[in-house]
Design goal:
The protein is mainly α. The chain is built from eight helices and no strands. It is globular, with a radius of gyration of 16 Å.
């Protein structure tokens, strides 16, 4: 990917899933490439609503997530935009927790993200229960857990 970017490839290109070069670099944990792409590539989620921050946290790439946060803050992006959940309500925090990335979870909590049980709007959660936000509660220290009711 580095050679393509160096030779002027379209960094804003998105594949059929809506994944950009920035999204792919975040998912692979390529810190140098993420640093090169941030000023060149729009901040966009894929067709499932998974942002570059979402995929970095879901795959446990703490240094990438921290770089993304710093770069986004410099670009005056809101924290809600940076740490947005996907279309099913799965946040970067819930995905990091579900996948066992405790360092990422700790950092996200330090950033002020809250643990909440959100209603899920997709039909895939029953097929892949490990992706549901409630799974985050399993690995978080009880001192960090503050539940909000999803319903009445």
């Amino acid at each position: 990917m580095a050679m393509l970017v160096t030779h002027g490839a379209d960094t804003g290109h998105r594949d059929r899933s809506g994944e950009s070069t920035l999204w792919a670099a975040c998912g692979s944990g390529d810190l140098d490439m993420v640093a090169r792409l941030m000023p060149l590539t729009p901040w966009e989620s894929n067709i499932r609503g998974e942002s570059p921050m979402w995929i970095a946290c879901a795959r446990g790439h703490l240094a990438v997530a921290q770089l993304l946060r710093d770069s986004c803050v410099e670009m005056d992006m809101s924290m809600a935009t940076i740490f947005t959940a996907d279309l099913c309500g799965n946040s970067p925090l819930s995905q990091a927790a579900a996948n066992g990335y405790t360092e990422v979870v700790g950092w996200l909590l330090e950033e002020g993200l809250e643990v909440g049980v959100l209603p899920c709007c997709c039909c895939q959660c029953h097929q892949a229960p490990y992706t549901h936000p409630a799974v985050a509660l399993d690995i978080l220290p009880s001192s960090h857990v503050q539940l909000r009711h999803a319903g009445p």
